[in-house]
Amino acid sequence: MSDTSPSSAEESIFSVDTLLKYMGNDAKALAIVSKIVRDACAPRMAPFEQAATALREQRLQEAGKIFHSLRGSIGTLGARRLVQSSLELEKAIVEQHIDAIPALFTALESEYQLVLRDADAWLQRNAPQGV
Question: Where is the signal peptide (predicted)?
């Protein structure tokens, strides 16, 4: 639905092209995907704030669940880089590699901010008016 084709690096940040294609690539699909994107991104940075608190309080399992949930919801948006970054952080949490967690958290947070930026831009360009 976009006139320009994103580079593969950009595409791994956020791309709902495949989702649109599977849903029929029409106005109805665009409306549904727009809602999916809005809903997935609606929490904004709240999951990171919650996870940061859980990590500070040594509630590693809870933090891991937050990241797992985030990966599931945002991963549907073609966010391959975020998925990979989340998997690395989740693994460090499970294996209790405490020293690695801060850098992995920062990397995942950066990827998530890129997804939010690109999702917002996509919605501006593609979302049906009045939805």
Answer: none
Residues 102, 88 contacting (CB under 8 angstroms):
no
Cα 11 to Cα 77, 97, 130: the distances in Å are 10, 30, 27
C-alpha closest to that of 34 among 82, 77, 79, 78 = 77
Alpha helices in 13-100 (DSSP H): 17-22, 27-41, 46-56, 60-75, 80-94
Q: Tell me the C-alpha distance between 98 and 95, whole Å.
A: 9
> DSSP state, 7?
P
pLDDT value for 129: 62
Backbone angles phi, psi at 57, to 5 degrees: -90, 10
Global pTM reads 0.85
Low-confidence ranges of the chain (pLDDT < 70): 1-11, 128-131
CA–CA distance, 60 with 8 (Å, rounded to integer)? 33
By CB neighbour count within 10 A (0-12 exposed, 13-18 middle, 19+ buried), where does 8 fall? exposed
